[in-house]
Amino acid sequence: MNHRAPPRMLRLLAHSAVFGTALLMLVPFAWMALTSLKSDTEALSGSGLLPADYRWENYTAAWTSAGLHRYYINSILVAVFTTLLGVSYNALAGYAFAKLRFRGRRVLLGTTLATMLMPPSVYFVLAYVLCARLGLVDNLPALIVPFIASGFGILYMRQAIRAVPDDAIEAGRLDGMNEADIFWHVVRPAIAPPLAALAVITFMNSWNSFFWPLVMIDRDRFRTLPLALADLASGQYVQSWPVRMAAAMILTAPPVIVFITFQRAFLRGFALPHT
To answer: For 187, which DSSP code?
Structure first.
């Protein structure tokens, strides 16, 4: 079949629409960044887009006024451990569903799929009761353990691992490798882009999580950055809008850095054909 390239004008219109949409999405972020560098008078008066005098001390005020360093450490610990444990568990579960044959596999796979069809509000109360009985309330493990297993992560890894040739896995078994060695030396290198994509998604979801930490955490020492930012936005710590915007920039910095660092692997992870 002969596939002709689209006309130049059509490609130009498509690219213009994509770039225009991207610029529109960047407008709130740019406004937040510029406001964080203004004085209180400039921010409230709305006189001009660019600040007359760039006030970098707003970031110092945001960092020190609410003690954000404590919440920053908590958020980093929760996001990093959730990502490492979640990606490892989901990849191993995906490998089991994709390449191993065991009793009840179809039932477990169907149950995993069913968890993606229900809104979180359906099993929220049950999740809270289970975490309370396990002692996972008002501590950092309460923000990590419930999110290690993910229906999306398991099914995504399963689809990625299904694309790994069975001949390569059988060759490893003939060489005397156990399933753990096969996964680490044969499967893992073949699914590196999907692993990176899942890691980015898991990190961002954990970093931006607000409702679950709001319910599970009472003590201030275990609060995460989104909770502290909500208090900061309400004026509990400071009244300055530029300082609040600086705190919001501090909150968004790690996800942006993670995505920029792994964007190539992230895009490849979703562009690779999955069987």
So the answer is: I
Residue spans of alpha helices (H) in the chain: 8-35, 40-45, 57-65, 68-99, 105-117, 120-133, 151-162, 166-174, 179-182, 188-190, 192-208, 211-216, 225-233, 241-261, 263-271
What is the Cβ-side half-sphere exposure of residue 17, based on CA atoms within 13 angstroms?
6
Tokens of residue 232, six digits:
């900061």
Q: Give CA–CA dist 87/239, Å, rounded.
A: 40
Can you state the angle between helices 263-271 and 241-261, rounded to 10 degrees? Answer: 60
pLDDT per residue as tens digits for the range 183-200? 999 999 999 989 999 999
Tokens of 131: 């975490």
**Structure token pair of residue 66:** 């609410």
| Least confident piece of the model among 64-73, 138-147, 171-180, 220-229 | 64-73
Query: Other C-beta atoms within 10 Å of 64: how many?
Result: 11
- 70 close to 249: Cβ distance less than 8 angstroms: no
Q: Note whether 81 and 90 are within 8 A (CB).
A: no
- Which distant-in-sequence residues (6+ apart) come within 8 Å of 90 by Cβ? 149, 150, 153, 154, 156, 157, 198
Nearest Cα to 207, choosing from 125, 143, 134, 152? 143
CATH topology for 67-271?
MetI-like fold (1.10.3720)
224 token code pair: 């995460």
Q: Where are the domains of the chain?
A: 67-271
Helix (H, G, I), strand (E, B) or coil at 45: helix
Residues in the chain: 275
| Count of CB atoms situated within 10 Å of the CB of 152 | 16
pTM more than 0.70: yes
